[in-house]
From TrEMBL:
PANTHER family assigned: OBSCURIN (PTHR23278:SF19), SIDESTEP PROTEIN (PTHR23278)
Record key words, sorted: Disulfide bond
Domain Ig-like: 81-166
Matching Gene3D superfamilies: Immunoglobulins
SUPFAM superfamilies cross-referenced by the UniProt entry: Immunoglobulin
Name of the molecule in the record: Ig-like domain-containing protein
Originating species: Meganyctiphanes norvegica (Northern krill)
Length: 234
């Protein structure tokens, strides 16, 4: 244009660049008129979350009395969530108890996808899910047993637009109380003190001679740990 226009770049209301540059071919033909062309090339070194859902505008003006010509583009950035939080499992759990746990992830556009894992196994039965502009919320109900004591319950969040990125997540280790589970082992004691263990089938069919020495071992697992063992006969 004539006079030479002033070209500026804006991010929302923030001025980014006002430097004019000459094109490699400074003259082009527009409606058969020969006019010089100037440009302003904006370089964004690294797109960040500050650019999320913002408008990037190029403004050209050569007369303060006339509104500038403006071209605007909306920036959409994607990435893994900034934070994932897991609701605390209050207190210690008891085997057979059902517990409801919730997970929330935010800071990702589009909203992140949430997945539940228990002891390395994916949980497909999710009770509820909610998605908003840049956050997601999910809850799952599980029934715990003694084998769940000390295992990891984990919520993982991933970006649906960038599934190749490693997910971020939050986890908690479960504490489950359960009554003792006792198992008995039987062994023969040979002359000289040699102990020969017996498998379950051998114990069922075993016959012992009067005066023969045997060894009985009671194993038990529980949480809290068992503190007293008692052998009873008949």
């Amino acid at each position: 244009g004539t006079p030479t226009p002033n070209i500026t770049w804006w991010l929302g209301n923030k001025l980014l660049d006002s430097t004019l540059e000459q094109l490699e071919d400074p003259v082009i033909e527009i409606t058969s008129d020969m006019k010089k062309v100037v440009s302003n090339v904006l370089h964004i070194v690294q797109i960040s979350r500050d650019h999320l859902s913002t408008n990037l505008s190029c403004s050209a003006s050569n007369n303060p009395g006339i509104p500038p010509l403006v071209a605007t583009v909306a920036l959409i950035t994607s990435g893994i969530p900034l934070e994932v939080t897991l609701s605390d499992v209050v207190g210690n759990l008891t085997a057979g108890e059902r517990v409801l746990v919730s997970c929330r992830a935010w800071g990702s556009q589009p909203p992140p996808l949430l997945h539940w894992w228990l002891n390395g196994q994916h949980l497909s039965l999710v009770s509820n899910e909610t998605n908003d502009i840049n956050w997601s919320w999910s809850e799952v109900e599980i029934e715990v047993n003694g084998q769940d004591n000390g295992v990891k319950l984990e919520c993982r969040a991933e970006s649906p637009s960038m599934p190749y990125l490693s997910p971020t997540g939050a986890h908690q280790y479960l504490t489950v109380y359960y009554v003792p589970e006792a198992h008995m082992r039987l062994s023969r004691v040979k002359a000289g003190g040699e102990v020969i263990g017996m498998d379950e089938n051998s114990v069922r069919d075993a016959a012992f001679l009067e005066g023969e020495a045997i060894k009985l071992t009671c194993d038990a697992i529980a949480n809290p740990s068992p503190y007293n063992f008692t052998f009873m006969f008949n």
